[in-house]
Task: structure prediction
Amino acid sequence: MTKEQIARAKEWDLLSYLQTYEPQELHKCGGREYSTVTHDSLRISNGRWNWHSWGIGGKTALDYLVRVRGMDFVSAVETLCRERGADAQTASEIPLKEKPAKPFLLPPENRCGTAAVSYLLGRGIDAEVISRCIGKGLLYESRDYHNCVFVGKDSAGKARYAFLRGIYGAFKKDVDGSDKRYSFSFPSSDKDSPFVAVAESPVDALSVASLLKMQGEDWTKNHYLSLGGTAPCALLTFLHDHPAVSCISLCLDNDGAGILGMEKIREAVREDAELSRRIRVIANNPPPLVCGKDYNELLQQKVAERYEAESREKVRTGHTSGMEK
Result:
């Protein structure tokens, strides 16, 4: 590749590339924002693209072809530099060299999972909620990096998805080969429960359960589902696998992506004839100005408030006892 070819390839922004060569791949979301048909959580706006479910993004079509489509750099540059002459192939006619799909394998388990448990307790997650997740094989600590591993299973109980959450930093990643249709979910004690609480991440889903328990409610009567982002595919699969569910409580983040995600979920439910008759959708994103943007931040605030109240009560009762003596 010459420097001129590379420079020419980098001139393509993703929207222009898709409009020119793959218009069937574009889906308009409203205003000047687009998504792609293949990747619902990939958004294009203001000259940039972001693949929210994977936490990656860029400016150019070259970035997209390499990082999303899995093309090698040289092939991507050739694709973008190819002239549209009578005897030349267009980009849509060139077979894309997709990366071979990796088999799904759960990371090896660390026999002592105290680091992961301590991390989740520090995030405010209730000890009983954590214990039940571990008991159902939905949560464990990885051996090599001591990540929290949240496991998603299909209706037959087979692991099909896993999400890694680092306990020492901001590391987050789906395990290679994960099927996002079967994202992490914690089942109700009643298999025919009509209720499911839906959050973006496993930590937020368990935070909702912990908050309900803190409020004295029967938290076990609900199913809890993590979308692994904001796309509705995991929820749609869950609803078809759980025909008794009739009420969805949307507990997505209180930010632009979460609000847009809730709109797309409502739209997806309306477009499914069977679900539109059965399902009632309730928006329960965290209240603004009271806490942070998600349910874990709300949970940590409530835990801190309870701790402060208990500390004040101990001081008060201890002082009173001293006066009586």
About this structure: Confidence is low (pLDDT under 50) at residues 83-94. The chain has two domains: 3-93, 114-306. Residues 66 and 73 are 6 Å apart (CA to CA). The chain is about 40% helix and 20% strand.
